[in-house]
Structure formats: structure tokens, C-alpha cells
Amino acid sequence: MKGATFGEVFAVREFRVLFGSFVLLIAGDVIKMLALAVLVYERTSSPGLSAAAYMAGWLPFILGGLLLLSLADRVPPRALMIAGELIRAVTCLLLAYAGLPVWALLALVLVTGLFSPVFFAARAAMLPEILPGDAFVLGRSVLNVASASAQIAGLAAGGAFLGLAGPSGALAVTAALSVVAAAVLRAGLPHQPARGAARGGAVRETLRVNRRLLADGQVRGLLLAGWLPCVCLAGAEAMVVPYMGGQGQAGVVLAAAAAGMAVGEFAVGRFAAPTLRERLSLPLAVLLGIPWVGYAFGPEVVWASVLAGVATAGLAYQLGLQRRFVDAVPEEVRGQAFGLQSAGLMTGQAVGAALVGALGEAIGPGPAIAVAGGGGILVALALAGVLRPSPAPYPAR
């Protein structure tokens, strides 16, 4: 079956709106967390508190994903996304100008961050509605590439804003980006009703639907296939800085990893037909682990960068799972399903980084990276039954 094209994807007005607001969201979040970390460090001179501030925006993603995701299907998606942008704008202004003590700054970020997975889920669930069939998979590929690019741009812009206006000014810039994104969403997206009806409290409903999704063998298998290889990848990447001796060369290796991901997503999304893309899921998932094994031989920065870039190109294996995941999930809980997918992915990456970090303490960073790569190969092979597409024909939409 012939796949969609980038031109067809970007011809959809609603996708252009989601794309533009998504880039603003990712770049703004990077600037916000960077500015908050600097602000906390300026007030406390504590590296530990500064690091905690940088991670504070991501930690509640796990709890929110477990308890609040049903809101993604119970509230109209446009209203939910706009609310997310406005909450972020207000949060940034309070962080910048309210004069809150450090504990209150961190508490504010943690509390407002509980709803982040809900806002992300609303955006993800709208994508297959505006891009049917293979266009949805290509749209996900475009957003994945945009996410990596926006993170790099956000770090560069955040550094510039911090130098010019300090952390408060950088936070004000993030608030402005959020207001612009809210206006873009309001003007560019049509109103759509909520997918599901309210059935009791949001927490109880979230837990009920999470159990329902995880009890479905097909959905559970696709979730695990999306999570587990990335656990090993996150563990390997977490060891890059200590492997390179804490020097600036680690930034070169991590940049190569980001570039490899972008190239892999683009190449598979653009040039592989839908059925081929699904057949590539297993070999690409195996590829995600193989190059990291080479770190056992102690490569210097050039070869370390090459290996990292080749490995992360394998992340394109997830494109072959996307159509199957949408088909397996009931439409009325699609928002929560995408939120559960994201929450599990972030949780798994944190666990992978912690486990491989502990292993690195015992055997050294290079061998730990190699073990993570070997684990990634074994995980991909163990999931072969899920990663291989079923013989059923690719459905027409």
C-alpha cells in the first residue's frame, strides 16, 4: 500500500496548528526548566536543589499519568489544550515575579505538572482524528523530529535569554510563548466534543480504564514493545556523561544521538511504505541495542558519537507500532491510552537510567553501556512476537 506524503500531512490545517503549538510547547518547557534551575541555584548555591528543579517538571508526569488521564477523554480536546497553555503561562509568571521561596517554587511546578500528561494525551489523541490511516503515522514521525529539534532550539534560546534577561526574563518569555500557543489553538482548531462520558470521579475512572487497557493482551503487548527497548536506551544514554569523563565531549555524543533519532524517523517515515515500516519494527528495535555494545571497547568521542547516532536511528521502530496501537484501542478511551503510553515511557526511562547508573558505579560507565545495549537486544528479541506485524492486510481508511 502506498504511504502518505509530507505534503499531504502538512496540507491539513489542523495538523499545522498542532505542529506549531507543539514546537512552542517543547521549546518553552525546555526554557522554563532551564531558567528555574538557574533561579534556584542563584538563590541557594546548591547543585542538588538546582538539579531537582530541572527535573521537577517531569516527575509528576508519572503520578498524573496514573491518576488523571481520564480527563483527556472527558473534556473537549481544544479546551483542554488551551487550558494547559494558560496554566503554564500563569505558572511561569508566578515563578518569575511572585517572590516565592524555593520550596514553594518547586511545589508549584510539581502540582501544576500533575496535569501535563493529560494535556499531552489530548494532543496525541487528536492526531489520528485529523490524519486518518498512514498519514497519522507520518504525522507522528514529523512531531518526533520536531520534538528533538525544539529541545535543541530551546536549550540554545534559553541560554541566550538567560544571558540577556536572567532567569525571570526567560520565564516571562516562556509565558509569552504559551499565550501565543493558546491563541493559535483557539483560532486554528475547531471545537470537538469529548470522546467519552463522565463515569464517576476522574481518579477512579483513570484507574479503571488503565486496568482495562493493560488487561487487553494486544494493547499490553504494544505498550511493552514501546516501553522496554527505550528503558535500555535511556540507561545507555544516562552513562554517556560519566563515560566521557564529565567533559564537554559528552554533548557531542548526545547531539549525535539526537541527530540519529531525527534521521531515522525521517527516513523510515518518508521512504518506507506502511507495510515495510511495520516489518522493520523488529530489526530496528534490535538495532537500538547493538551499537551500544561497542562501548565495551572504549571508543573515543568520534566513534562513540557514530555508535550513538546509529543506535538511536533504531527508535524509528516505533513508527511500525503506531497504526496497530490506534486500531487496538477503543476510540472512547483513546486519549487515556496515549497518555498511558507516554507515562509508561517516561517512567521506564527514569528506571532505566537509575538501574544502569547503579551498574555503572559497580563496573564502570563503558561496560554498563555495553550491558544496556545487550539488554536492549534481548528485550527486542523477547518481544519479537509483538514487533512482527500480523499477516492481516493493512486496513484501508
Structure described in brief:
InterPro entries: MFS, MFS_trans_sf. Keywords: Cell membrane, Membrane, Transmembrane, Transmembrane helix. The protein is mostly helical.
Walk me through what this model shows.
The protein is mostly helical and 397 residues long. The chain has 2 domains: 196 residues, Growth Hormone, Chain: A, CATH 1.20.1250.20; 174 residues, Growth Hormone, Chain: A, CATH 1.20.1250. 80% of the residues lie in helices and 0% in strands. It contains 21 helices and no strands. Helix 8 packs across helix 9, helix 9 crosses helix 13 and helix 11 packs parallel to helix 19. The radius of gyration is 21 Å and the shape is globular. The C terminus is likely disordered. It holds the Pfam family MFS_1. It comes from Nonomuraea polychroma.
- Tell me the number of helical segments per DSSP (H or I, 4 or more residues long): 21
Q: CATH superfamily membership of the largest domain, which one?
A: MFS general substrate transporter like domains
Structural Rg: 21 Å
Total number of distinct structural domains? 2
Helical proportion? over 70%
Low-confidence stretches: 393-397
Second rung of CATH, namely the architecture of the largest domain:
Up-down Bundle
Give the SSE string: HHHHHHHHHHHHHHHHHHHHH
CATH topology of the largest domain: the name is: Growth Hormone, Chain: A
- Structural class given helices, strands, pairing? mainly alpha
Mean pLDDT metric: 85
Shape: globular
Share of β-strand residues: under 5%
**Top-tier CATH class of the largest domain:** Mainly Alpha
Q: Could you tell me how far the N terminus lies from the C terminus, measured between alpha carbons in angstroms?
A: 12 Å
Sketch the major β-sheet: none
Number of E-type strands: 0
